Fold Methyltransferase domain-containing protein.
Amino acid sequence: MKDNFSTQSADYAIYRPTYPQALYDYLFALVKNKETAWDCATGNGQVARVLAQHFNEVYATDISENQLKNALQLPNITYKLEPAEQISVENNSFDLITVAQAIHWFNFEAFYGEVKRTLKPDGLFAVIGYGLMVIDKKVDVAVHKLYEDILGKYWDNERRYIEEGYKTIPFPFEEIIAPHFQIKTTWNFKQLIGYLNTWSALQHYKKANERNPLEYMLTELKEAWGDDAEKDVHFPVLLRVGR
């Protein structure tokens, strides 16, 4: 599994969007017992902290020590520096397993073997993610220019799974057809730039060229943003659920 997010882990904790409560309510309604949950590739613990409000114990793993340092500490969350494909828990441990915006980096076969080993017989497995945001016509054009024209070759091949809405990942589970959800939030211009700086392709570009590509796009993005103090932002939620 690649670690593309350690270097910008602090920004990741600040600027990455959060999932809607309706998504969690849907998942929790499908879980029969709420004793233990595993949030795999937890990052800064965004999902784990929500799970901790509903489950007795939450096991949260990631391969990035810097990400875990930025995670919210709660008494019923155990953070572990462990890969998705091999964790140190017993068989049949979890009522719910979640992986948010990360499964495209995994060795699918090894990870799914670990999910099947550690999930309880009546447990639920949820793959969550989000696609490219939509703001308004002018800003979207500028963001797409950055995404495709400037950063196109710097995206990892695994990014295609996000672009395909996670519909093309292998999913060897009894699937439950889930409803559609959206992340709805409001950003100022600083938040837009903060979020763009968390993109893995942008970090790859910086390493290869020793400068931030946003330097070329800042004026164009600002002009597209205009005089609005804030704008509405929508992300499509990606979701695969199974047992």
